[in-house]
Amino acid sequence: MKLRERDLEIDFTDAIDAIVFDQMKADQPGYHGIGQMHRVDFVVELEAAIVFVEVKDPGNPKAQAEGLAKFHGELQDGTLSDTFAAKFIDTFLYRWAEECLQKPVHYVSLVTLEDNELLPNFSDEIAKKLPPMGKSVPRWKRQLVENCQVFNIELWNASFPKWPAARVAKV
User: Fold this and answer.
1) Domain that holds residue 128
2) Which domain of life is it from (predicted)?
3) Which of 72, 104, 111, 160 is deepest in the core (most CB within 10 A)?
4) What is the pTM of this model?
């Protein structure tokens, strides 16, 4: 199943189901109707897990200088990791209310930065903002998220060869 966010496409070849979760068109199956809630771009169901996928494309050749400056400013001041965490939490809540989270949940992001050094730190920043924020909660029977990782296209394709990501021409 191929899903596209602007001109980035990911082929989730082994998915049971894959939807564009941030769908804003009411006549589409991924539409959820609560515009105030944050949303990840894709929700992918695999045999053993659910994967929430967020895509950000600052490396887009058509990116404007103003947008890039905003992106890098939010990356540096922590606002971007707040946004990524909120997208996970709200999507989790929505899918939980739909009774669609019977499997472990993973959160992966594709961010088209060339700098591989920033990605692990960004993953850690997001993970620290996801409940239980690095704390032990003895009463919890399940983890909210199994892992949280951020990849650029090169690392994504090396880590997920079954899910190739590529830039495609807009149709």
Assistant:
1) 2-167
2) Bacteria
3) 111
4) 0.92
